[in-house]
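User: I'm new to structure prediction. If I give you an amino acid sequence, what do you actually give back? Let's try with this one:
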Amino acid sequence: MGRQTPEPLVRRLTSRPIIEDHHHNNEEQQQSSSISPSKPKHATTKKKSSTTESRGIEALKQLFCGGMSGAVAKTVTAPLSRLTILYQVHPMVTTKENRPKFSMTIRGGLSKIVERGGIMSLWKGNGTSCLHRFPFSAINFYCYEGMLDILNGEQRLSDEDEDNDITNTNTVSTFSRLVAGAVAGTTACVACYPLDLVRTRLTTQLDGKETYRGITDAFAKIAQSEGPIGLYSGLGPTLMVAVPNFSISWVVYGSLKEYALEDELFYNLRKVDYNTGEQRLGFLLTLAFGAASGTLSTLVTFPFDTVRRRMQIQGQHFAPNERLTGVQMIRSILKNDGIKSFYRGLTPEILKVVPMVGTMFTTYELLKEKLKV
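Assistant: Good question. You get back a string of structure tokens that encode the predicted 3D arrangement of the chain. For your 373 residues, that looks like this:
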């Protein structure tokens, strides 16, 4: 699991065409009632199918935009991501005597990575991270929409329609969004977890001492040596990171967005769609609010992130009888390294929030413009 976009992709899908078609159909029915007592059923069915098809195409386009923007953002920030993970797991892959030799500064850490494996080693494991992005976004997207349909009915308002004050009795409650987000995030994490684990192991491999030759080789060797259950090592702590991360990001970003769109203090920082008159957050507000929500969620969930990273690689370095459970891992970290060890790597993780949000937002908007979403 990686850090998510401050405004989930699923919140950007609009069902306005469905609402407009609904009003348009009501007008047609009123006009036709004076001419004909009945309306052919096949016409209504045809309109519904075309609406469903157009909504499906729109969803696929937005899914592609979200996946590509996430992949680009992860590629831009990959060096900081790898440095974060190496800081988190370093005590497990080195001896006590060698620990002081590991650089404790960001610049020194990046220099040492380049010195050992060349400039491209800064992006080790990034391919798996990008592959993880698309299925994760797809599963998260459809589970979120599906849960909202189950909880509120299929004729519910989309987020954009609610922001534009379109009247409808089937509004979506905050509780429904939190439940849908938690279910979607959990499902996506479980389904895509093997890719996340492989990414961590490829990222933490020392140059010249590689265990795996690539993604396929890693899957095969892990399944062979640790069994299928080995692909889910550390899943518990990962869910303890994912669910709070989604919830905090949504609440913080959503609250700041609502405040900025209502308060005249931020009027000049808003973005107005001249075709619809809709007001949205401008680039600077999106960047600031995304950074705020991302930083806060990181501070809260980072200790569990450290635990999950260590659990993900222990099968690579320790015999089965030496591997620890989540609780045992927490106790071991406290006993051997102290509470500060839970936050090793926090600085590069926070430093990557702003460039990641900025790159993701810029790429997403560019792709939307190109694809006319």
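You can read the tokens as a compact description of the fold. Here is one thing that stands out. The domain at 9-21+50-371 is CATH 1.50.40.10 (Mitochondrial carrier fold).
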